[in-house]
Design a protein that fits this description.
Layout lengths: L1 H24 L7 H12 L4 E4 L6 H12 L3 E5 L6 H5 E7 L5 E7 L6 E5 L6 H13 L1 E4 L2 E4 L5 E6 L12 H4 L4 E4 L5 H11 L13 H12 L5 H13 L9 H6 E3 L3 H17 L7 H12 L4 E2 L1 H5 L4 H11 L7
Parallel strand pairs: 1-8, 1-9, 2-5, 5-8
Antiparallel strand pairs: 3-4, 6-7, 10-11
Length: 334
Amino acid sequence: MSDLNQLEKDLERFQAKFAEMKAEIQKAIVGYDDLLTDSLAAVFSRGHILLEGVPGLGKTFLVQTLSKVMGLSPGRIQCTPDLMPADILGTHIVNENDEGRRVMHFEQGPVFANLILVDEINRATPKTQAALLEVMQEGAVTSGGETMMLPQPFFVMATQNPMEMEGTYPLPEAQADRFLFKLRVPFPDKATLVEISKRTSGFDAPSLQQVVGGDELIEFQKIVASVPVADHVTEYAAQIVLATHPEDEARVADVDRYVSYGASPRGMQALIRGARVICALDGRTAVSIDDIRRVALPALRHRVILNFQGEAESKDIDQLVQGVIDSIPTSIAV
């Protein structure tokens, strides 16, 4: 009982800190309530984020704002077709020491920061994409036989523009799978556009305060990871993942017709990790099926791969995944 009481107290602190962070971010960012919640949920779940949206929606500004509010050192990589792995990881250069001798020195690249913005990741070549995604997985850079750990906490927020595909290199399925969530940045409505104009047409930018530090952030990550998940909730999440596969018995008709590959085991991990944060935000000490359903779309939309017919008919992945979620009755998991 004492452990449960401690967890309740920790979750109360987490709720308060989360609300404070979100309020501070919304001083600079208008609207996007769900997007901010999902972005912070991924951060507290120790996951990377793939942001998709047309230019001018504030994807880059969101990352900059997050780094200020969380007190994390930011890094930025602007992807272009001529970007090489050494441009992002770093490289060995020759320097002279105090004695006049030439020595090899490793010059760190922009990945040696806490929060990395990778702008238009689909404009980098596959070689550079692979180097970046290897760093995301390992949390370290190896060069010249030496392994250097990246600072912790470490997050990558990558953006891609779905409109301009000419001259781009779409992320392979196995590499997109390394992102915990794929979040779509919607176009703002009229009221939001008006508010954006009021806030940004002058010279004064909002002054943002740091709300949480790196060590405290890691502490909250550990607290959230300790939220228990009952067996029937885990089984429900597994049923959703399996139902995205065309060969599964529980698949829906559209999956059988339009899907080539379903979500991977990483999709299952994303469901559980994300659901824990949603549960903690609601002040509960056990994950529910509704928490799984809440994070299923951002956790799975980039892990379901269309076949030739699905591509030819331009099927909407979100509709397919939502159909899978709706097809699994909540009652059978209890």
